[in-house]
Amino acid sequence: MTPGAGAALRLLAATVDAKAVAEIGTGCGVSGIHLLHGMRPDGVLTTVDPEPEHQQFARQAFRAAGFASNRARFIPGRALDVLPRLADAGYDLVFCDGDRLEVLDYLAESLRLLRPGGLVVFEGALAGGRTVDSGPQPTEVLRQRELLRAVRESQELVPSLLPVGDGLLCAVKR
Fold first, then answer.
1. Angle between helices 52-64 and 30-38 in degrees, nearest 10
2. Separation of alpha carbons 71 and 38, rounded Å
3. Measured between alpha carbons, how far is 99 from 78 in angstroms, rounded to an integer?
4. Does 131 have pLDDT greater than 90?
5. Is the pTM higher than 0.70?
6. CATH value at residue 9
7. Cβ distance 71 to 42 under 8 Å?
8. What's the number of CA atoms in the CB half-sphere (13 Å) around residue 23?
9. Cβ of 131: how many Cβ atoms within 10 Å?
10. Number of domains observed in the structure of the chain
């Protein structure tokens, strides 16, 4: 994640006064740190990743950044197995940086998880510029295009594409 994308993520979390955030794709914890910095001081980040090693590394990164252990809940597993167990309308923001082939499923789950006025954010929406390239593209880029179209056409969402990093596709749930 670029510094600009991280700053935008921090701003977005602060804008919705986020107390509960779900993150799909823990990675090494960089995006989680940005989210935590933007969240309310009593906010909790729920982060899902299929790789327990990623979560262990992120746990250490959060601690090194000064966050108490009760600020993050780590759930190992595939996002599409874990997300159905999370509370309906229980989240202020859902950040999606997981399997690029599952983005449409992440969108459906996010709509269920978000409260009205909540925000869904997808990292990598520009796919290195390939989402607008007219040549043949790999399946994950085609999924990104489908996601962009689904968000743009949804009556339930107010979307915007932020051109920071590799693109943050953001949408507020009506």
1. 50
2. 12
3. 9
4. no
5. yes
6. 3.40.50.150
7. no
8. 30
9. 21
10. 1
